[in-house]
Design a protein that fits this description.
about 525 residues, alpha+beta, Cytochrome p450, four-stranded mixed β-sheet, three-stranded antiparallel β-sheet, 19 helices, 13 strands, about 50% helix, globular, disordered N terminus, Cyt_P450, heme binding, heme, oxidoreductase, Cyt_P450_E_grp-I
Length: about 525
């Protein structure tokens, strides 16, 4: 048949398969070719990665310039992250402001970051347009803020932040403050009676111990196990801010953040026991054993009175927030309660110790001011009402915090919805903002002789002074901290004179608490 004839040998073409040039090579030559091919491929991929990084970097810079910002030069991929993670970043911001103005932009890896010490910009961000800047700028490793059930006040945003703030405000009411004052007096007695005299003392260590004892008494009623775990947690803090961290990689490679978070969690699971985790476990256990209907004797009990079981309490979209429309109820979930206690404990001990350290340093260097305070308080009984009516003492504290706004690294915001300010600057969603409090407090156009310790400058109030933050997210514990500082200082000056020590230094660095610690400060206390 025709079809079968087509298959006959006479109609079949003869095909010869020619061997590939590679097949004739000896095995070791094939391996060599394969290694060269891999090397070429890696080089090509690396080159493409570099090209992409440069293009992406330039795109981010051009976007910031289009939005009206002066942009500080930076490296592709890294951006200005080495500067932003430096333990001396607060000083470097001031140097950059001299060159680029009061508001300028940086790149934190791939995250646009605006630094500002402009009073107009600060007010608009923190007050006028708060609904677009209701969140602090968060570490990328905290990117699961919408799903975490144990978020604390500082990391929360939107309606959840308002609910937590409303719930915690009861513990800082005047009624509660009177209770805290009694506990402060007990711990201040311990400070006064055990103070080493006529010898060189490390001020920061002294006041860290004092502040931690006050916090332990007020937050969880001085439980001995709590004191021990809290002390261990405190001792685990204090490392200088560093470029070499997992957070840095997350800033540089945002798309890898979930993987980096997973690595961080595994490291914490299999690494040494974290003292902070032990302290949190103690707080959770103590809160679980407490009854909600007990009379409040500590901060824990105040929060226990508004504790609820429900995990979903209807906070809604936290990124879409209108503070004028949002109504907050007083309630904290079981998972949230230990986190609030931990946050208050760490924040309360750290900032108070820093302020007392720096204030005593300044008084040791300015004996005339120390004598003037003593003349005002020497015969006073330092009760709550008396301490609230000592304006000169208040001015001294304000002036200390103007010269050393040690909580300035915490003064951040993140834009949650695009907005253009009256200055013409446009902020895209996700842009982070750092309030440069240090430069604001040393601006010679706003403060006369800004480097001098002059408490009298606060005889007139100033809206340019923001050591506790500004706007609705101002520090919730400000009144508590000021009362603790005043009580300790009055009791000290009624009994002792503070002398400077030759060779003492004041070394300031940003620490892992995101506050600026004063180290190397030594003084001598002399009995009057």
């Amino acid at each position: 048949s025709p079809s079968s004839s087509l298959l006959s040998p006479s109609h079949c073409h003869s095909y010869h398969l020619h061997p590939s040039p590679l097949s004739s090579l000896p095995p070791h030559k094939l391996i060599e070719f394969d290694e060269k091919g891999q090397m070429i491929l890696l080089c090509v991929l690396f080159l493409l990665f570099i090209i992409y990084s440069i293009i992406h970097h330039n795109t981010l810079i051009n976007r910031l310039k289009h939005n009206g910002f002066v942009v500080v030069p930076s490296l592709p991929l890294l951006g200005n992250e080495p500067l932003l993670s430096s333990p001396y970043s607060f000083k470097q911001f001031g140097q950059l402001a001299q060159i680029y103005g009061k508001t300028f932009a940086l790149l934190r890896g791939s995250i646009p970051t605006v630094i500002t010490s402009d009073p107009t910009v600060i007010r608009e961000i923190c007050i006028q347009h708060f609904s677009s800047f209701h969140s602090h700028a968060l570490d990328p490793l905290d990117s699961d803020i919408y799903s975490r059930s144990n978020l604390h006040l500082f990391h929360s945003r939107g309606s959840r932040w308002k609910r937590l703030r409303t719930s915690m405000s009861t513990a800082f009411s005047l009624q509660a403050i009177r209770m805290w004052f009694t506990k402060m007096e007990l711990r201040t007695d311990d400070l006064i009676e055990t103070l080493p005299l006529d010898k060189e003392i490390s001020l920061h260590s002294l006041f860290q111990r004092h502040a931690s004892s006050v916090i332990a008494e007020c937050v969880f009623d001085g439980d001995e196990e709590g004191k021990e775990t809290f002390t261990d947690a405190i001792l685990s803090f204090g490392s200088p801010s560093s470029f070499f961290s997992l957070s840095t990689f997350a800033y540089i490679f945002p798309s890898l953040t979930p993987l980096i978070i997973s690595i961080d969690r595994r490291r914490s699971q299999f690494g040494p026991i974290n003292p902070l985790a032990t302290f949190t476990h103690f707080l959770a256990k103590t809160a679980y054993l407490r009854e909600a209907d007990q009379t409040p004797t500590d901060f824990l009990q105040y929060l226990k009175s508004v504790e609820v079981e429900e995990k979903d309490i209807g906070d809604g979209r936290e990124d879409l927030f209108d503070p004028t429309q949002s109504r907050a109820i007083k309630c904290i979930t079981v998972d949230e309660l230990p986190s609030q206690l931990r946050f208050v404990s760490i924040a309360g001990f750290d900032t108070t110790a820093n302020t007392l350290t720096l204030l005593c340093l300044l008084l040791s260097q300015n004996q005339n001011i120390q004598d003037h305070i003593r003349s005002l308080i020497f015969d006073l009984s330092p009760d709550l009402d008396t301490l609230s009516n000592l304006p000169y003492l208040q001015w001294c504290i304000w002036e200390t915090l103007r010269l050393f706004p040690h909580a300035s690294p915490l003064s951040t915001r993140e834009c949650t919805s695009p907005i253009t300010l009256s200055t013409g600057l446009r902020f895209d969603r996700g842009t982070q903002v750092v309030i440069d409090t240090w430069s604001l407090h040393y601006d010679s156009s706003l403060w006369s002789e800004p480097h001098l310790f002059r408490p009298e400058r606060f005889s007139h109030s100033s809206s340019l002074f923001i050591p506790f933050g500004i706007g609705p997210r101002q520090c919730i514990g400000m009144r508590f901290a000021l009362l603790e500082i005043k009580l300790a200082l009055v009791r000290l000056l009624q009994r002792y004179r503070i002398h400077p020590v030759e060779g003492s230094t004041c070394h300031l660095t940003v620490r892992d608490t995101n506050t600026i610690w004063p180290e190397g400060i030594h003084v001598r206390f002399e009995s009057l």
